């Protein structure tokens, strides 16, 4: 019998729990290193990013999305950052983009065509268009990974609900080697403002 992906996950999980393998990951909900990290959902970063940043389970709140982008100042990513700060004790924010990010080459027209090929009707697309939703803008990426990080750092740092004392840093990670490049040092910007 061939297991579906979800069945395979559940089978593995039964063994994981039965063997108490979870014990190595027990921690609480508060980030021990008092960090909130916004990063990309890229599969190459799942284990590489925490290792490259010397993070263990429980050290940081990691918020992932396509491109490590805050696209709306009152969207779910910014809400998660504020929850990490006000409710969970994070004291610094780090935005980590990565080299070779798919958002740097995202083509809205190509993606819309792919939607049509997978069954999204022109009626649905027209309804969205007439409702004021511009998919071409919503599905927009960025020109370079560094510029994407700098723009997101700016949106977070200038948010009216972010405490002035919270440094917001920006980094780019090499998705092959794990090498980190500091693009924005929020500590220096904070000192300059004082």
Short description:
The protein is of the alpha/beta class. The chain has eight helices and five strands, in the order H-E-H-E-H-E-H-H-H-H-E-E-H.
Report on the architecture of this protein.
The chain is α/β, with parallel strands linked by helices and 194 residues long. It has 2 domains: 21-104 and 143-193, Carbonic anhydrase (Beta-carbonic Anhydrase, Chain A), CATH 3.40.1050.10; 107-140, no CATH class. The chain is built from 8 helices and 5 strands, in the order αβαβαβααααββα. It has helices at residues 5-18, 45-52, 76-86, 108-117, 122-130, 135-138, 145-157, 186-193; strands spanning 35-40, 60-65, 92-98, 168-173, 180-184. A 5-stranded mixed sheet has the order 2-1-3-4-5, with helices on both faces. α2 (45-52) links the parallel β1 and β2. The chain is globular and about 50 Å long. It starts with a helix and ends with a helix. The relative contact order is 0.15.
Going by CATH, the homologous superfamily of the largest domain would be: Carbonic anhydrase
- Reported CATH architecture of the largest domain: 3-Layer(aba) Sandwich
Distance between the termini: 66 Å
Largest sheet: 5 strands, mixed
Helix content: 25-40%
Number of helices: 8
Strand content: 15-25%
- Unreliable spans: none
Q: How would you spell out the order of helices and strands?
A: HEHEHEHHHHEEH
Topology:
Layout (H helix, E strand, L loop, with lengths): L4 H14 L16 E6 L4 H8 L7 E6 L10 H11 L5 E7 L9 H10 L4 H9 L4 H4 L6 H13 L10 E6 L6 E5 L1 H8 L1
Parallel strand pairs: 1-2, 1-3, 3-4
Antiparallel strand pairs: 4-5
């Amino acid at each position: 019998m061939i297991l579906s992906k979800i069945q395979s996950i559940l089978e593995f999980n039964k063994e994981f729990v039965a063997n108490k393998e979870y014990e190595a990951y027990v921690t609480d909900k508060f980030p021990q290193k008092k960090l909130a990290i916004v990063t990309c959902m890229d599969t190459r970063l799942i284990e590489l990013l925490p290792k490259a940043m010397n993070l263990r389970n429980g050290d940081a709140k990691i918020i992932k999305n396509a491109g490590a982008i805050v696209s709306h100042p009152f969207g779910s990513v910014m809400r998660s950052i504020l929850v990490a700060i006000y409710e969970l004790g994070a004291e610094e924010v780090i935005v980590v983009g990565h080299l070779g990010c798919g958002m740097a080459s995202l083509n809205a027209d190509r993606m819309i065509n792919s939607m049509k090929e997978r069954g999204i009707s022109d009626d649905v697309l027209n309804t969205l268009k007439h409702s004021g939703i511009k998919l071409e803008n919503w599905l927009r990426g960025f020109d370079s990974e560094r510029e994407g990080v700098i723009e997101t750092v700016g949106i977070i740092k200038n948010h009216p609900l972010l405490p002035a004392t919270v440094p917001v840093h920006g980094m780019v990670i090499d998705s092959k080697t794990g090498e980190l490049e500091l693009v924005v040092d929020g500590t220096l910007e904070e000192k300059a403002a004082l």
